[in-house]
Amino acid sequence: MVARYGGEEFACILPNTGLCGAVQLAEKMQEHIRALGIEHSASDVARVVTLSLGVATLTPTDDLEFQALIEAADKQLYEAKKTGRARVCSSFSDEYL
């Protein structure tokens, strides 16, 4: 499922998908957007549209709130932006459990 999360942020929920599969999909998304070469003349960052992606996986438990997964992915998204944009950052995180 893909949904707009806010502003220029989107969320892709991939049930039964491990970190490796999620990262592979994120990298394919990057490749496809890069190949389109969509001009972004209003950007101070890049002359074409790019994607910064944060990927996170968590093992569901009865005590786990859905917000934990969003927070983990958001943390990785900001890491991607902070370290140069147009990249995929990922983490399997138990810190939110």
What report would you give on this structure?
- The protein has 97 residues and is α+β, with helices and mostly antiparallel strands.
- It has one domain (15-92).
- It is built from two helices and four strands.
- The chain has helices at 19-36, 66-82, and strands spanning 2-6, 9-12, 53-57, 88-92.
- The strands form two sheets. Strands 1-2 form a two-stranded antiparallel ribbon. The chain has a two-stranded parallel ribbon with strand order 3-4.
- Strand 1 and strand 2 (9-12) form a beta hairpin.
- The longest helix has 18 residues, at 19-36.
- The radius of gyration is 14 Å and the shape is elongated.
- The two termini are 23 Å apart.
- The mean pLDDT is 88.
* Largest sheet, strands/sense/barrel: 2 strands, antiparallel
What are the low-pLDDT stretches, counting only 5+ consecutive residues below 50?
Answer: none
Beta-strand residue fraction: 15-25%
The total of helices stands at 2
Distance between the termini: 23 Å
Structural domain count: 1
Helix content class? 25-40%
> What is the overall pLDDT average?
88
So what's the overall shape?
Answer: elongated
- In N-to-C order, the SSE pattern is EEHEHE
- Strands ordered across the widest β-sheet: 1-2
Q: Which structural class should the secondary elements be placed in?
A: alpha+beta
According to DSSP, the number of beta strands is 4
